[in-house]
């Protein structure tokens, strides 16, 4: 096959730190493995972070994918969670461009890919589970470039990250497994997650020292009496019944105030 081109159509007016790390990771891996990475539809007024702009393998395009590949639309494959056919090694001989709609890693999924689906590209699926953008590109490269069938790739689903001695969070995504049985994430991602978690609970709180393995319902009176709680990754909210800040999906001590 010819050199594959991986395109992420940037669908947001801004560029956050999470996406910055993912894009840098995709660029480095693509460059190292002889593939091309194109970040398209980047607003002209968007200032790229210096570290990202200097990353080998990153090509920034202000035009949309439709404009860039207008002469070979039939060679573009859209990685689409709603597609009926799974990606296969043979697709590497059929398509030259593999298109992703950023941001893939929303939880719950917001179907951002629908904006590209309307353009009529042939779609392929990467299995039933939600992936981060860099994972989706990595899996696609393994399948179409390195000819590894989708079902033979080793994955880690919903890994837990230890934030501190009181808190751990479950990432709601599928990742590719590395040689040490750990999920492959962009450099700096774990530190960013920990930093975000620290910022999110930076209110003045007193920890109540019970760690929940199988958290009960938030409004259960027994939960309030025993000081058990569940926290949601990335979003804090105040629950009046419990008198504390609640986040779901992350298991930690309830912080009572």
UniProtKB/TrEMBL annotation:
GO terms for molecular function: protein-arginine omega-N monomethyltransferase activity. Signal peptide: none annotated. Pfam families: SFM1-like (PF04252). This is Carboxypeptidase D.
């Amino acid at each position: 096959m010819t050199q594959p081109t991986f395109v992420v159509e940037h669908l947001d007016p801004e560029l956050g730190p999470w996406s910055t790390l993912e894009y840098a990771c995709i660029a480095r891996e693509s460059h190292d493995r002889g593939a091309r990475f194109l970040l398209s539809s980047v607003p002209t007024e968007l200032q790229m972070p210096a570290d990202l702009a200097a990353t080998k393998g990153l090509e920034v395009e202000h035009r949309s994918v439709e404009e860039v590949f207008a002469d070979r639309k039939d060679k573009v494959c859209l990685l689409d969670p709603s597609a009926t056919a799974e990606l296969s090694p043979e697709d590497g001989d059929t398509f030259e461009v593999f298109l992703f709609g950023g941001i893939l890693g929303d939880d719950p999924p917001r179907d951002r890919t629908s904006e590209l689906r309307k353009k009529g590209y042939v779609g392929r699926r990467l299995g039933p589970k939600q992936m981060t953008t860099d994972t989706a590109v990595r899996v696609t490269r393994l399948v179409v470039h390195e000819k590894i069938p989708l079902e033979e790739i080793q994955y880690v689903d919903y890994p837990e990250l230890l934030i501190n001695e009181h808190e751990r969070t479950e990432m709601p995504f599928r990742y590719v497994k590395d040689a040490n049985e750990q999920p492959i994430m962009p450099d700096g991602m774990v530190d960013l997650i920990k930093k975000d978690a620290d910022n999110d609970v930076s209110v003045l709180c007193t920890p109540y020292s019970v760690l929940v393995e199988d958290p009960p319902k938030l409004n259960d009176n027994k939960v309030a009496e025993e000081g058990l709680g569940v926290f949601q990754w990335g979003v804090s909210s105040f629950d009046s019944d419990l008198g504390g800040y609640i986040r779901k999906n992350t298991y930690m001590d309830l912080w009572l105030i």
